[in-house]
Design a protein that fits this description.
about 375 residues; four-stranded antiparallel sheet
Length: about 375
């Protein structure tokens, strides 16, 4: 190569990007990154929302299953209404299998009016403590204590361990003071008295004490009620409560309440027959973030003397009135309409198709709803 050629090569331009080209490339890249981030963030929000919806759906299904178990057991080893049971004295404690209080808990639902929702209170009575009734050896002379037959198969099945050892805690738990003891004599008379104490006697001489006293020595009880059977009846309440607002959540730790849970919960608890105060350690959260809890009834309204059932649906106040009237024992099924919502509102969701928890915030919570009819096999006449 000559000197002239080498000199010319030093003046040739160097290939590269201009400043304008670099700025255009950076801008295009920024837009691409923003689009990717936006799509990723939207996908993440959608995925999280679907997770919350799935959790709500699962919770609703589990809550309905608990309701189904309890409602179908109403009246078990009890009666539909104590006033309709054969008796020789008026019931000391009024007992009925199903009771509804329409809209009693609506105030616990946020923004209930604009969302068109309400919450009933449901009360159920039956033997929820054991699967059996038990044979009486006899009453004591005061008529306030029943001695149970410990060798009877039902007693052994309920309160004896596999090795034949008497399990006192199970006996004490079944005959918890405050529950009602249903006594049915061989003559068919029913008595409903309040359990005040119980004594397992090591499984040899188990006894249950109650109040008020029964008349003994006559035809009403058949002497000392030999051969009568007894069953402990519990009163179960379903009600919607905002546990975070009331401060009651601390008592439910480990019994279904999610730590830090917000919003109303459907709570199951056993209550007393007279005071309706909850019995200790019986409260349990059945469903979180309740959006609606409506209970209706089907009852047999056939005329007196007719053998053909006539079923009629009773909604809202009519259902409440039915369970407070003379035909309350003729309830045949319970229709439960329950809804739950996601914990937070989705800003993309129109309130007209969701649950508007906070009117001042944009969006709404997503709702999952279910309705089911639950038969009452223990109330069929």
């Amino acid at each position: 190569m000559t000197a002239r050629t080498r000199h010319a090569s030093r003046h040739e331009p160097i290939a590269g990007f201009t400043l304008v080209e670099l700025m255009v490339a950076l801008t295009a890249g920024a837009f691409a990154l923003m689009a990717i981030y936006s799509i990723g963030a939207s996908s993440a929000r959608h995925f999280q929302e679907q997770q919350r919806v799935g959790t709500a759906q699962t919770s609703l299904r589990l809550g309905l299953e608990q309701l189904r178990r309890d409602i179908s057991r109403a009246g078990y080893l009890g009666v539909g209404w104590s006033q309709q049971a054969q008796r020789c004295v008026n019931p000391a404690v009024p007992v009925q299998a199903v009771e509804i209080r329409d809209g009693a808990e609506t105030a616990s639902l946020p923004n209930a009016g604009p969302n068109g929702v309400h919450a009933d209170r449901l009360l159920l009575t039956g033997n929820y403590a054991t699967a059996d009734e038990y044979l009486i050896v006899g009453l004591d002379a005061s008529g306030t204590q029943a001695r149970l037959q410990s060798s009877w198969q039902a007693f052994r099945r309920s309160f004896l361990l596999q090795d034949g050892t008497f399990h006192g805690p199970s006996f004490d738990a079944a005959f918890e003071p405050g529950r009602v003891l249903r006594i049915r004599t061989q003559q068919g008379n029913h008595f409903f008295v309040t359990i005040t104490d119980r004594r397992g006697g090591g499984g040899v001489d188990p006894r249950v004490t109650f109040s008020p006293a029964l008349p003994v020595g006559g035809a009403c009880t058949g002497g000392l009620a030999d051969g009568a059977t007894v069953a402990p009846l519990s009163r179960i309440e379903y009600r919607v409560m905002d546990l975070a607002a009331t401060g009651a959540g601390a008592s439910l730790a480990g019994r279904g309440l999610v730590p830090g849970a917000q919003g109303p919960q459907l709570v199951r608890r056993e209550i007393g027959f007279a005071t309706e105060a909850p019995l200790a350690q019986t409260e349990r959260v059945v469903l979180d973030h309740v959006a609606h809890f409506d209970v209706d009834l089907f009852a047999d309204v056939r005329p007196v003397g007719s053998a053909t059932p006539v079923l009629q649906r009773f909604d809202d106040v009519a259902a409440q009135n039915l369970t407070q009237g003379v035909n309350r024992h003729r309830v045949r099924s319970v229709v439960v309409n329950v809804a739950t919502r996601t914990p937070s509102e989705d800003p993309r969701l129109d309130p007209s198709v969701g649950y508007d928890v906070d009117p001042l915030a944009r969006g709404a919570a997503r709702i999952r709803r279910a309705e089911t009819e639950i038969l009452l096999p223990n109330l069929v006449e």
